[in-house]
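Structure (tokenized):
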């Protein structure tokens, strides 16, 4: 078993000339390099407590948290929020996120979750995803119909629609 390192950039080497833009108070924007929750935006490497607090204000209280000790990138802590959003941390720093279709028993989010800057969202038809610039099938995936949207966003298709989107470090057992 292994996982994707996600190649999270070193924050000391990243270009941070401009601050990450905030979004509406009731929106979580999922970005290639982090997340924005209402008036607060976080690049990968942001502190766990700040990220979790901001997400809870927009989506509601976290539903679950834990640690995946078996990730090839090292132990990854995760926190699940209403609406199918999971955020991933290593050594107390944000390293990734994934957003899946809600499942039975999931709480409804108070706010809205969306992939920033694109037409592709959870539930988008295959044709919309396939027509997006940067779309590429990952034919060698052992996890189902996996695709990428450029170098930083990945996803899965089920029943002819987008069922998950992700960025950064993931612990998919391949």
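Design, position by position:
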């Amino acid at each position: 078993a292994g996982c994707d390192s996600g190649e999270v950039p070193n924050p000391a080497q990243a270009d941070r000339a401009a601050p990450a833009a905030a979004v509406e108070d009731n929106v979580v924007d999922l970005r290639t390099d982090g997340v924005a929750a209402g008036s607060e935006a976080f690049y990968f490497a942001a502190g766990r407590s700040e990220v979790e607090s901001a997400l809870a204000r927009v989506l509601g209280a976290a539903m679950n948290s834990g640690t995946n000790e078996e990730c090839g990138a090292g132990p990854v802590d995760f926190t699940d929020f209403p609406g199918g959003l999971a955020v991933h941390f290593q050594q107390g720093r944000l390293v990734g996120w994934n957003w899946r279709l809600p499942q039975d028993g999931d709480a409804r989010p108070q706010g809205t979750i969306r992939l920033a800057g694109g037409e592709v969202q959870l539930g988008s038809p295959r044709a919309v995803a396939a027509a997006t610039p940067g779309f590429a099938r990952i034919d060698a995936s052992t996890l189902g119909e996996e695709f990428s949207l450029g170098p930083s966003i990945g996803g899965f298709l089920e029943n002819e629609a987008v069922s998950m989107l992700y960025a950064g470090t993931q612990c998919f057992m391949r």
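Reviewer-requested clarification: The longest helix spans residues 48-59. The mean pLDDT is 87.
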